Amino acid sequence: MPITELLVRNAELYGDEIALVEVNPEITDTRKVTWREYELIETNPIAHYRREITWRVFDEKANRFANMLISRGVKKGDKVGILLMNCLEWLPIYFGILKTGALAVPLNFRYASDEIKYCLDLAEVDVLMFGPEFIGRIEEIADEISRNRLLFYVGEGCPSFAEHYDSQAANFSSVAPDIKLTDDDYAAIYFSSGTTGFPKAILHKHMSLVHSARTEQAHHGQTRKDNFLCIPPLYHTGAKMHWFGSLYAGSKAVLLKGVKPKSIIETVSREHCTIVWLLVPWAQDILDAIDRGDIDLSHYELSQWRLMHIGAQPVPPSLINRWKKVFPDHQYDTNYGLSESIGPGCVHLGVENIHKVGAIGKAGFGWEVKIVDENGDTVSRGDVGELCVKGPGVMTCYYRDEKATAETLKDGWLFTEIWHRRTRTGLSSSLTARRMSSYPAARTSIPYRSRTSSAQIPLSRMWQLSDFPTSVSARSLRRSSR
């Protein structure tokens, strides 16, 4: 099943229900947004900027964009880049690309002009969608990248070197294009963060995307009553694949621009969010603001908030212990993954294991893990080994890089080059990594703590939390460019 079928299903079953909300507390909403044929986006005249779309409008908007792309010659297997900050247009554009059979190629909003050009060329991008924040960077390279490539601008004040997405897409049919897709079709190219060199292009099929949605829903139990607050950028596998849990469940999500503690708490309260994914600094800032008295929780409706989870960096157990004192009813999970494993979930702590906070966790839904030596053999206790993962979410390859692919993918296993020493009681400190391109953008390995007997553990069960009696400390590790 291609990932687009989940959107079609939601539009058919829950068409009039709200799918996405965009909130920007930093902007006062003084505008009205109009669309041809009928209103696709509803503006809400409250103090801050807020827009929302239903599942039906979401799907129709994706169809309009897909039909526009097809009219301009985009076909199955082509690539369309997305260089946008989080906004209500982001996901309909993403799904519109997929509905044509083309591949979506999200780009890091931090890229400089030369990095943008490099990634466009490496991924052989045919069309680029970009927003107002990137006009200057795109203008620097417009003459070079516009050769045999279409440029579309998303937002107000379209520059002369691009076409205006809004006005173009509004003229096209809202009926889905007749493009047959399967789960074996290519869907997206994501980029490693390129810490020591330019990024590598990571190719995924629809089956990877669908599995990430199933994994997220299996780990966090999203239902149609949930409302996910998404703050991190959608260009990365982390945020989008956490949102895929909402897509899978047919539930609402809120895109919040801004990370101020008060804005987060106010949005959770006003929008009745039930699941929030935070980074460590944001969680710390919220707790500090509460301690200082800047936030009085009695002024907010937070009883519906059931789950807070964190990824992207080591999670101090002291932080979560502190969080549980303030929010005792919250579930908690630590997420771990790589862009090569379609983001979060190949390993996770599990909401049932909050007492083992600080751990990376166990193999995720549908995933296998093992630790091997440099010859690829499973390690004995006391030896150093490399973390390997295997599952439906493993990348197809590094696009146009056969050498790097052969070094990383072996017999279906993704070799992460995150190194550990396995003692008689479990895993000890991480050592170093020659290469790693991971979820999230910070590319980090999360510290592990657990306990068990010292009996020999079958490698097939190596990462079960109950198997580990002692701690594993893991520091941030990054995969070098080859």
Description:
- It is a single chain.
- With 482 residues, the protein is of the alpha/beta class.
- The protein has two domains: 4-181, Rossmann fold (3-Layer(aba) Sandwich); 255-467, Rossmann fold.
- The chain has twelve helices and 24 strands.
- Strands 1, 2, 3, 11, 12, 13, 14, 15, 16, 17 and 24 form an eleven-stranded mixed sheet that branches. The protein has a five-stranded parallel sheet with strand order 5-4-6-7-8.
Question: Keyphrases for this structure?
Answer:
Rossmann fold, 12 helices, 482 residues, alpha/beta
How many strands, what sense, and barrel or not for the largest sheet? 11 strands, mixed
Per CATH, the superfamily of the largest domain is: ANL, N-terminal domain
Strand content: 15-25%
Mean pLDDT: 84
Q: At the third CATH level, what is the topology name of the largest domain?
A: Rossmann fold
Helix content: 25-40%
**β-strand number:** 24
CATH architecture of the largest domain: 3-Layer(aba) Sandwich
Instruction: Specify Rg, calculated over alpha carbons.
Output: 22 Å
Low-confidence stretches: 29-46, 423-482
Q: Please write the CATH class name of the largest domain.
A: Alpha Beta
